[in-house]
Specification:
The chain is an alpha/beta fold. It has one domain: 4-Layer Sandwich (Purple Acid Phosphatase, chain A, domain 2). It contains nine helices and twelve strands. It has helices spanning 25-39, 57-76, 93-99, 127-131, 133-143, 146-149, 153-169, 175-178, 180-189; strands at residues 4-6, 9-13, 42-46, 81-84, 103-105, 108-112, 115-119, 195-198, 205-209, 212-216, 225-230, 233-238. The strands form two sheets. Strands 1-6-7-8-10-9 form a six-stranded mixed β-sheet, with helices on one face. A six-stranded mixed β-sheet has the order 5-4-3-2-11-12. Helix 1 packs parallel to helix 2 (57-76).
């Protein structure tokens, strides 16, 4: 297991949810991974790359084999592939490490140029997940059928979480101070990081905080957003743009 990395250039994607029948990740991922290989860029999957809670074993096996082969091809080409474990894929960490030779991490401290970047999935700052993990798992499994009705249900949940954060702070006009994820990022920035990259919420973001910059790599379940680190410069991008 690795927690520290030195990388001149790295791309970070998250929340692919491969195996979930409503994930569109496989439609765009192969081309993106070809770009990674061609440009010789390191890759970090920032959690929930594969779906355990809302996928059948058949769908997971069918959808993941091609992706795993492409990730292994990157490693065989001498590129670094990191995998920060999320809440939908935690049971897969030993499989990914032993079968695909992917470097597994609970979080990743990246040094690029003169910048320090902290990469975490972010679920450990989700109050619902932390305070009621068993209920969270039940709710996540129960949400699976809702995807048949509205595949973007994750956005609704993220919106609800943001509104709850605002109400908790008592100031609906100040979202930057309200979000628990911004608070968590600020805590990490105060420890000496220049930027923090989370996933989990499915909402791509770049927010300037007091001690540095918060990024969210968004998702590839319904989108194609990613974060690129290049010689210390950190940017939020969209592959389909």
């Amino acid at each position: 297991m690795i927690i520290d990395a030195v990388e001149e250039r790295m791309v970070i994607i998250s929340d692919l949810h491969i195996g979930n029948p409503f994930s569109l990740a496989n439609q765009n991922l192969s081309e993106f991974l070809q770009f990674v290989k061609r440009e010789r860029v390191s890759l970090c999957i920032n959690g929930d790359g594969f779906e355990i809670l809302q996928a059948s074993f058949v769908n997971l096996a069918k959808d993941s084999i091609g992706v795993l082969n492409e990730l292994r091809a990157l490693i065989d080409a001498g590129l670094n592939v990191y995998y920060v474990v999320g809440n939908h894929d935690i049971v897969l960490e030993h499989f990914l490490e032993s079968w695909a030779a992917i470097q597994i991490s609970p979080f990743l401290n990246v040094r690029s140029g003169d910048q320090r970047v902290r990469v975490e999935h972010g679920h450990l700052y989700d109050p619902f997940f932390v305070k009621r993990p068993e209920l969270y798992e039940i709710a996540t499994r129960a949400a699976g059928p809702l995807l048949h009705i509205y595949p973007d249900v994750y956005y609704v949940w993220s919106w609800y979480q943001r509104q709850k954060d605002k109400w908790r702070q008592g100031d609906a006009s100040d979202e930057a101070s309200a979000s628990v994820y911004y608070e968590a990022a600020e805590m990490l920035l105060a420890r000496g990081f220049d930027a923090v990259v989370f996933g989990h919420t499915h909402k791509p973001e770049r927010v300037e905080l007091k001690d540095g910059t918060y990024f969210n790599s968004g998702n590839w379940m319904r989108s194609t957003s990613y974060v690129e680190i290049n010689a210390g410069s950190v940017q939020l991008k969209d592959w389909a743009a």
